[in-house]
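Researcher: Checking consistency across runs. Here is Histone H3 again:
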Amino acid sequence: MARTKQTARRSTGGKAPRQTTATKAAKKYGNGPNVPGVGG
C-alpha cells in the first residue's frame, strides 16, 4: 500500500516537494506510517 501511495505521489511530478521528502524520510527511517509526514 505504502509503495502504491509513493508511486502516486511521484506521478504528481513533485507537486508537493514536502511530501516527497517525507516519503524519503519514511523510507530512510523505515517507520512509514509512524512518520507524520506520510500520515500512514
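Researcher: Does this match what you'd expect to see?
Model: One thing to look at in this run: The chain has a mean pLDDT of 57.
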